[in-house]
Amino acid sequence: MRAYIEDIARHEGQEVTIHGWLHNRRSSGKIHFLIVRDGTGFIQAVMSKAAVGDEAFARADHLSQESSLSVTGIVRADARAKGGYEIDVARLEVHSEAHDYPITPKEHGPDYLLDRRHLWIRSERQTAILRVRHEVIDAVRDFFNSRGFILCDAPIFTPAACEGTTTLFPVPYFEDHTAFLTQSGQLYNEANAMALGKVYCFGPTFRAEKSKTRRHLTEFWMVEPEMAYADLDDVIALAEGLIASVVARVLDTRKTELEILERDASTLERITPPFPRLTYDEAAALLKEKGLPFQYGTDLGGTDETVLSEQFDKPVCITHYPASVKAFYMKPDPRQPDKALCVDVLAPEGYGEIIGGGQRLDDLDLLLQRIKEHDLPQEAFEWYLDLRRYGSVPHGGFGMGIERCVSWICKLEHVRETIPYPRMLYRLYP
Ligand code: 4AD
Ligand code: MG
Fold this sequence. Notes:
By secondary structure, the chain is an alpha+beta fold.
């Protein structure tokens, strides 16, 4: 019977066949210990000369890492075994021998591994991270679907900027036209929310970020909910609910992966709403108190975010940034018009911003003024202005970067390991 390693506990005492690859091997004279992986996990297959005969035993002695094979044998519980089970091999079938697999159990540098990302993803750590990524995405979808949000995706080719003109990727679009890869689906989401009430889009987004930091990719996945008849408090409550729900799901279903990653789960167990809130002014005061050279009135930098998010053991919501450092679509706070009704959620343990959003500017005249101030081409935004012409309502939403979220949950050094094929300033291969 075919079995997958992740289900092996259900097959104790039965004979099963595992189709996979050889991860590692050691021998002690009359026994080979084969570590087999099948994509769902790793298991030790114990092969004795007595059980398989001389010929098969000799063949296994030369098998190299990543050769594809199938092992058949009885599943046996063993408290000492990683995962709790082993297989006593009765038959071994080799499909394709791999020679000189370039990623060995020794240490390799990041560039070496990134050049071989298509193979690196087979490693135990990388499969654990990609499984957590899968779970995060699944939890995100469940969260919105179970709350009546309608998935309504935004286009990838767009005619104009959403998040500033300096990080646009232009693409030739037939004769005489230039399209830009989307930076965010938000503007379309706002139109969709006026049509459907509560919506979300979820797709790849692009930023021509020339920065080489551990938080930036040029292509990343973002989930963006948007709600009609909603204010900043509604947006913050939704963000808290989403983060708590995603973390709870990973803790519930991906314990094994967190263990492989040596991620301390207890710090994640504390992630329950409500999250602490600070205004920009309070955050600025805290940074000053900590002795940082923060200049009031500017945006928070990477180091500022790191320091702020180390002060709390839950994500922290920073609201009311100066309108001047935020995007053109932010609604000003009527009580202090130089501040925006916006929120950035910073993940704890120094991870920094994982969510950015807020309440949108719903006044036609002020929006027109902002588009001019930001030097944006009004023609490209006429459709967006229509949303303020025909039944404008208070509304808001946010975007959560999947890679930043996974990086924090897995406690990684760099976002590049959270996506199968990272795209960065100097990386377009493989
Ligand atoms: O704060 P940002 O730029 O917000 C927006 O794009 C809004 N239009 C979203 C909205 O309100 N619908 O980006 C949102 C999130 C960030 O908090 C971060 O998690 C992620 O997207 N992000 C990046 N992730 C990886 N690499 C980059 N270069 C990123 N830029 C933003
Ligand atoms: Mg932001």
